């Protein structure tokens, strides 16, 4: 499941930006970009769980 968290956090970040920037009130732009930045940080963190095909081929 951890290998899919990168994709999930990228999708959540995109959805936050789409919906957050459509709402026209004070500070929603800054809040949506902040939440998107947090989602991108988590997505970058969970990239270490994506399997590397080059390493698995070398082991065989």
Give an account of the 3D structure.
There is one protein chain. With 60 residues, the protein is an all-alpha fold. It has one domain (2-59). It is 72% helix and 0% strand. The chain has 3 helices and no strands. Helix 1 (5-22) runs antiparallel to helix 2 (28-45). The longest helix is centred in the first third of the chain and has 18 residues, at 5-22. The two termini are 24 Å apart. The mean pLDDT is 88.
Describe this protein with a few key phrases.
single chain, 3 helices, 60 residues, mainly alpha, 72% helix
Walk me through the topology:
Layout: H1 5-22, H2 28-45, H3 53-59
Helix pairs in contact: 1-2
Keywords: Membrane, Transmembrane, Transmembrane helix
Transmembrane segments: 30-50
Radius of gyration: 16 Å
Q: Judging from the principal axes of the Cα atoms, what is the shape?
A: rod-shaped
Head-to-tail CA distance between termini: 24 Å
Helix-and-strand structural type? mainly alpha
Largest sheet: none
Strand fraction equals: under 5%
Report the average pLDDT across residues: 88
Q: Point out poorly predicted stretches.
A: none
Order of secondary-structure elements: HHH
- What is the number of helical segments per DSSP (H or I, 4+ residues)? 3
Count of distinct structural domains: 1
How much helical structure, as a percent, in the residues?
A: over 70%
**Strand segment tally:** 0
Keywords: Membrane, Transmembrane, Transmembrane helix
Transmembrane segments: 30-50
């Amino acid at each position: 499941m951890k290998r899919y968290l990168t994709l999930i956090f990228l999708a959540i970040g995109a959805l936050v930006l789409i919906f957050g920037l459509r709402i026209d009130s004070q500070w929603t732009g800054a809040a949506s970009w902040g939440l998107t930045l947090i989602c991108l940080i988590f997505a970058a963190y969970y990239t270490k769980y994506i399997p590397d095909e080059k390493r698995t081929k070398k082991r065989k």
